[in-house]
């Protein structure tokens, strides 16, 4: 007598065949697991670094620079690169910092790089201003988390400790490009250009960071960690959003690395990642509450949000590049023009370098075809 096959065999076979389909749809329907929050060892490392930075100006080795002309030394701009991919535009920034190997501006800036250590093997320091010693001790970063706040604070702290003459701290990403020459940027920030623009517009030594208190998504962003989570440290009426990239004065940089109270709230993980961009919330909220008059209220970095996707701004590709685009990216309704811009694809490097080479051959300052453009262009 032949026994009939078990009724479970077809069922098990069907289940096994269905598993790949189940896994596929599950991965596309369910949200990804939240990234880990800052670990206690990382927090303690940061706290030690921030205390060192806070102590630098508490016990200065020499009298700080307060006004141009008060000392033989020149104030400097610290450029802070926050990156987790290769520095594709390093050659362009090299041209920005060292046009025609200029000796005149070599002592007017410093460069610091925070590179996610988990991808560092793919971020090879190209040398020059991006030499290995410009890479600070870094921690892993995750989009939409407080790790990006921590990374920016590390950069500021490292720049404060490294050089007491760093008076401005400009945060940029690996996707940013300069729109003007270094000399133009420096003169504009330190008021020594012909237009005296900063002094005339009442912007003397202010931080350039976007601060917005009217936004249709403001409440969603405020409650991204849950209802009533941010109080009492951060009340909704004091909550602000703004730019991820900014230029801070040394005074504000010191305030940022000393801050502890708001950090306790902004470091908390978000329940709604689609509404949570901590680095765009923490810095505008903190500075607008402690020193609103010390902030210009706008950023010097131009970003195109007209066709953003999943929280990412428009990415420019080589087919879009032209001198006219550079002119348009500079245009601003504020007292100063935009001096940097993002976001550019890596293959934009070659055409941008060709534009810079053309300007260099014509013996013009590296302003991307300035054409007698004033500071308002």
Automatic annotation (TrEMBL):
Stored InterPro entries: BC10-like, Glyco_trans_14
Annotated transmembrane regions: 12-30
Major location (coarse): membrane
Domain of life: Eukaryota
One Gene Ontology term of the molecular function aspect: glycosyltransferase activity
Membrane topology of the entry: Single-pass type II membrane protein
Keyword Transmembrane helix listed: yes
Keywords tagged on the record: Glycoprotein, Glycosyltransferase, Membrane, Transferase, Transmembrane, Transmembrane helix
Signal peptide (from-to): none
GO terms for cellular component: membrane
Subcellular compartments: Membrane
The keyword Methyltransferase appears for this protein: no
Protein name: Putative glycosyl transferase, family 14
Organism: Helianthus annuus (Common sunflower)
């Amino acid at each position: 007598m032949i026994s009939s096959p078990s009724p479970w065999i077809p069922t098990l076979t069907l289940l096994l065949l269905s598993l790949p389909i189940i896994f596929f749809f599950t991965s596309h329907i369910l949200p990804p697991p939240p990234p880990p929050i800052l670990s206690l060892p990382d927090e303690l490392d940061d706290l030690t670094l921030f205390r060192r930075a806070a102590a630098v100006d508490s016990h200065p080795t020499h009298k700080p620079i307060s006004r141009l002309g008060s000392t033989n030394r020149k104030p400097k701009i610290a450029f802070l690169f926050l990156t987790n991919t290769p520095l594709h535009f390093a050659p362009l920034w090299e041209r920005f910092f060292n046009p025609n190997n200029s000796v005149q501006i070599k002592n007017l800036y410093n460069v610091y790089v925070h590179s996610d250590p988990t991808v560092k093997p793919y971020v090879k320091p190209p040398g020059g201003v991006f030499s290995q010693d410009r890479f600070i001790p870094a921690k892993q970063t995750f989009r939409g988390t407080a790790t990006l706040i921590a990374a920016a604070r590390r950069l500021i702290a490292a720049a404060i400790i490294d050089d007491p003459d760093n008076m401005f701290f400009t945060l940029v990403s690996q996707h940013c490009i300069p729109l003007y020459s270094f000399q133009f940027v420096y003169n504009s920030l330190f008021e020594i250009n012909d237009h005296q623009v900063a002094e005339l517009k009442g912007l003397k030594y202010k931080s350039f960071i976007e601060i917005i208190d009217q936004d249709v998504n403001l409440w969603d962003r405020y409650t991204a960690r849950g209802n009533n989570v941010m109080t009492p440290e951060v009340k909704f009426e004091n909550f602000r959003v703004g730019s991820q990239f900014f230029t801070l004065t040394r005074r504000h940089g010191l305030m940022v690395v000393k801050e502890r109270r708001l950090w306790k709230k902004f470091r908390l993980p978000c329940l709604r990642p689609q509404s949570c961009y901590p680095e765009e919330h923490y810095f505008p909220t903190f500075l607008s509450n402690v020193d609103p008059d010390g902030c210009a209220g706008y950023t010097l970095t131009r970003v195109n949000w007209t066709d953003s996707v999943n929280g990412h701004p428009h990415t420019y590709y080589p087919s879009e590049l032209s001198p006219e685009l550079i002119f348009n990216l500079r245009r601003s309704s504020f007292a100063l023009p935009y001096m940097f811009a993002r976001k550019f694809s890596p293959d934009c490097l070659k055409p941008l370098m060709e534009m810079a080479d053309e300007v260099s051959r014509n013996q013009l300052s590296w302003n991307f075809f300035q054409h007698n453009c004033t500071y308002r262009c």
